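note to self: dont lose this again. the chain is below, predicted strucutre after it. 191 aa total, dont forget to put it in the shared folder this time
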Amino acid sequence: MRAEPIPRVADPDPDPPPLTEADREVLERAQAGDPTALGPVRELLTARPELWRQMGDLCGHAEDSLLALLSGKSLLARESIRQRLAELKDEHLGPGPSPAERLAVDRVAVTWLQVYLADLDAAQGERAGGPQAAHLLRRQAAAQARHLSALKQLGVLRKLTRPAPKSFRLLPFPGVEESDPGREKERRTGA
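---
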């Protein structure tokens, strides 16, 4: 079965209208897996791109899950970590990021959260000792490796997409005259 192409949509409406009762009913049927809701939900998602952008934001869902694990019930901790995460993303994005850079920075942000969750779990699990502590330390090392890999991939991406320098000049060695291409041609032809 071939997937139908996703229709292009206009920029999101900054203040979308509220969902109607019929829209909510279609979304609930689709969420429950009702196959008869597939056509209507596609139409609704095409008409309301903010819905699929929110539901399809896998990075946002991963971040929210990790934030919940890191902060527990504390809204202060959750919002503080969320603010730091936004700052971290801004620091790594830089000016005029490409879509690929945005994806790479999202990966860096998620792995950053994973590293610190693993760090906290390992610190708390050290008291338990035994196989559980060893497992937590392996998880911590794996999270750190994923984070470093994400940072490396961001660097490689930037290096590969950076525009090449237009031209460069080598500095002359001391005591060696700088050659002039025009004079060099005169010297070779004897003109």
